[in-house]
Amino acid sequence: MFERLDIGIPGEKHLLRLMAAEQVADGLPARLTAVARCGDETFGVVYHQITRDDDNCEVLCKAWLLRLAETAQGSFYWDDMLPSCTSCDRQLEPLRVQKKCPVCKGQKGSGKCFHLSCYDPPWNKCQESAGASVRSYCGSHPFFGGFSDRKFGDSGSVPLWEEGLSDLDSGYFGMVLTATRRGDACEFFVLPGYRDGEETLPRHISISDGGPSIITSSQLQNCEGCSVSGIIFMQSPHLFLLVEKMGGENCIWRMLPGQTGWTIDRKEVEAEEKEFRKQIIQCGKAQEGGSLVGLSKASLWVMDLPQRLPTSTTAADLAKKVSWRKVLDLDKHDEKAERDIFDWQDDEAVPDRLLAAGPTDNQVIIFRKEGSEVKPWLLVDLPSGGTETRVVEITSTTSVPWKTKEDKLLASVVRIHHKSSGYLFFDEGGRTYRLRDEEILLKKDAWIAPSFHVEPDQRVVTFRFPEENGAARCCLSSTLSRFEYFQKALARWQEGASAEVVVSDATTQTFDLLLRYFHTGEVDGKAGLEGCLGLLELGNKYLLPHLVAICMTKILRMLAETDFLVNQQATLMADLLIVAGEINASGAFKFKIMERIACVRPDLTHNPEFLSRVSARSVDLLATLLSSLSCEGTHSYSRAAKRRKVELSRQKALWRQGSAAPTWSARCLEGAVLS
Question: Using CA atoms, how far apart are residues 443 and 391, in angstroms rounded to an integer?
């Protein structure tokens, strides 16, 4: 998990640990080819390839649509969207006697559909209704992780859909996935990527929260062709898609639902061909017009969208109203522009720059490949009204692997909010990596290795601890002068003249961790919650954003472990909440701490020590925490189901009050470069 690098410090070997981003979801026994966000959820298309003897195609691809579900601890797993019982909230199980499908009435063939119901013994009302209220996979079976299961059986023979590939396409099953929520259903459009063989039709998939059908799939007619990008960008007055075809042509699709399927009319946007290779996102609020943002080989482009359109608007009408305008030349911001990394003629290659939505409506982030890793590179603010684009360089304390031994990253980065706020990256094996907001910082705040060359005015700075019998720690002034706080202190303050600093708010044990950080840029891996909390306070006091970022990340990773959290003392948790509310770079960090307390340690809100300690420093902080516990209704659920409902209620109450925007995004406007 860590790469160890020696750094030259005389007399001793120190190790700089480059921390890897968390892998929050395990791989799949299948291949992941595309992901998309729908509402607050992430979905992905997975497939198996089966080689067969056939005159027309050598490979048969069987595909499913899965959802990335999140656990209470903040990890993720790929889920089949198996529904829960409306009475007891227990996950439905396969109907013991599979009968004729209530959705298609058996028209899709015997054994093609799969039905579920509730069989929870303690709940008589569920038993009595078992088989009466049935939810169905119409025309397919769930993926079930691709394994033969004693309860669910072997699902591998009935995918959501299947497609034959020529031998030239074997090994690459490219897809473009875009989605939107309409009423109680999630609507997906799957556009085929590059195919060397016959033209393949796009596909529509619908997932319903209610009704008998869980998921259904159908082909779209009269729209053959290969696509490299696609995004749903408007729902009113109709569903509109922007589709980038192979070769760079941009087309507007208008989608009209009907009883026999979707009707599509298309029109090419008249503009110079641009290749975005899945690097298109929506920026701003769709109901207010907003814009599309596209990342090409060397430029950032914006397409402004109209706010209101008449119901008679066709694809041709909309295509006349929109066009791409360049807002940023990337190469002038990239001193190390290695344009030979990515071959734009290779249909399977992943661009070396990836685009994602920013923390606020009018911001985007560009990630960049650096060697074998991916890190954030530019935060771009795109203000409305035609004002100038602002750009600031960013980086992170962790990085995402560009490629494992078997699988490379997909060309899609997903922005998530609230308790897991940050970015999700995916590889072809289904592994999912998270880069937290707390791990990102402005590049100017990144840690810089110290210089140990002897300077003429070199001094030794002494830190004295009067509360520990005059204990002292020493550090070279050249090591400290890299940091703004000490640079000013040594130059202007009384301590600067005497080269002596009095420390009354930290122990020597915590300060030793700080000295280690000064020299190595890392936090001791053995530092527990108390040590990281002490360092977090010092990082905030001495204006060390990089140290603050490391400490916030380590604390959140510790608190994700429920067994660890339940054993922490009330006074330590109170101090953690207080510090989280006071640090300059907090952003949503304090709300994440509150969320873990509210969901895992609500007992603390009845602990006199915890209450008195927090209220003495911040009544507002305590009030925010307590208000999240007063929003729970009474429900007749099972114990486990009720616990999940209570946790969800507390989380919603907290995030209604909290802003998920990190501090570094707000600082984009301060001293940013105008393009």
Answer: 12
d(CA 119, CA 92): 8
Q: Can you give the residue ranges of every domain in the chain?
A: 83-141
Contact (CB, 8 A) for 69 and 43: no
Q: Mean pLDDT throughout 380-401?
A: 86
- Tokens describing residue 102: 């209530």
- Report how far residue 604's alpha carbon sits from residue 569's, in angstroms, rounded to the nearest whole number: 9
Q: Look-up: residue for tokens 């922490």?
A: 568
What lies within 8 Å, CB to CB, of 128 at 6+ separation is: none
Amino acid at 654: L
Sign of the CA dihedral with 556 first, then 561, 564, and 568 last: positive
pTM: 0.90
Identify the CA nearest to 444 among candidates 671, 674, 675.
671
As beta bridge partners, residue 4 has: 17
Q: 406 with 414: CB under 8 angstroms?
A: no
What is the torsional sign of CA 631, 636, 637, 640?
A: positive
Residue 303 and residue 322 in contact, taking contact as beta carbons nearer than 8 Å = yes
DSSP 3-state percent helix, strand, coil across the chain (nearest 5):
25, 35, 40
DSSP 203-220: EEEEEESSSSEEEEEEEP
Query: Which residue shows structure tokens 């016959």?
Result: 198
Contact 450, 519 (CB under 8 A): yes
How buried is residue 105: exposed, middle or buried, by Cβ count under 10 Å (0-12/13-18/19+)? exposed
Asked if 380 contacts 363 with a C-beta cutoff of 8 angstroms, the reply is yes
CA distances for 540 relative to 287, 509, 535, 552, 587, angstroms: 39, 18, 8, 11, 13
- The answer to whether the peptide bond before residue 359 is cis (omega within 30 degrees of 0) is no
Q: Which of 103-117, 232-246, 488-502, 574-588 has the lowest mean pLDDT?
A: 488-502
Residue 323's closest CA among 284, 393, 271, 397? 271
639 burial type by CB count under 10 A (0-12 exposed, 13-18 middle, 19+ buried): exposed
Residue 34 CA to residue 411 CA, distance in Å, equals 8
Name the H helices within 77-211. 124-129
Sign of the CA dihedral running 547, 552, 555, 560: negative
- The dihedral formed by the CA atoms of 167, 169, 171 and 177, expressed in degrees to the nearest 10: -150
Pairing of β 325-329 and β 460-465: unpaired
If you count DSSP H runs as helices and E runs as strands, how many of each does the chain have, helices first?
15, 36
Distance CA 665, CA 440 (A): 10
Higher pLDDT, 101 or 133: 101
Amino acid identity at 465? F
**C-alpha to C-alpha distance for 14 and 36, rounded to whole angstroms:** 43
Q: Does pLDDT of 130 surpass 50?
A: no
Distances (CA, A) of 424 to 189, 295, 351, 353, 387: 21, 18, 17, 15, 31
- Cα-Cα end-to-end distance for the chain: 38
Strand partners of residue 647: none
Q: Which residue has the higher pLDDT, 294 or 457?
A: 294
